[in-house]
What we know:
The chain is an alpha/beta fold. It is about 30% helix and about 25% strand. Strands 1, 2, 3, 8, 9, 10, 11 and 12 form an eight-stranded mixed β-sheet that branches. The protein is globular. The two termini are about 20 Å apart.
Amino acid sequence: MADLQLPLTFLHRPAAADTPRPWLLLLMHGVNSHEEDLFGLARFVPPQFHVLSLRAPNVLVPGAYAWFQFAVGADGQRRIDREQERESRFLVGELLASAAQQLGVPAERVVAGGFSQGGIMALSLLLTRPALLHGAMVWHSRLLPEVLPDVAPAEAFAGKALWVSHGSVDNVIPPAAAQATREFAATLPLAVAGRDYPVAHTIAAQELRDSMDWLQSLA
Length: 219
């Protein structure tokens, strides 16, 4: 297999060589992190998946990256850099389509996943460009209200899947954010799975096992 040519720095764990119908899992890290963070989970991902872990395009400090920058106002509300978010979402969509084509994986066997801000990206991509992928795996994240005007028509989500899990004592993104995501997803013909776990802003061991079981169920 030729080396992948993609517009962002990434790490790649190929699918098992004997896989007749490989899948693709795209992983996106949280703010202030990098591509090696979630790539450490690749060994738990079912072997029929290619795993691509991306580095976000916006440099905060050396070794720390973001998909978009944000500020928290005095009222506690988060205000994002909308231009950076749109640019990153477009870039990830184009990258995902290119990677899938280079790897010979059709859109119906593609999943985007991420933690925290990376989960925002995965969810936003599924909601705005569902034709590119089968589903999204969203850990400890939230739905951006800024993305709602760009959500695809409901019929575009028929047969698509969404995993949403969160920490019941998450001190960075409150559990109410996950509930809001689930409630919005329930208005669409999406197959929604996932639950909350008794942890803060980190992926619980059981959460990871359940997420991987969900991935396996798709394949």
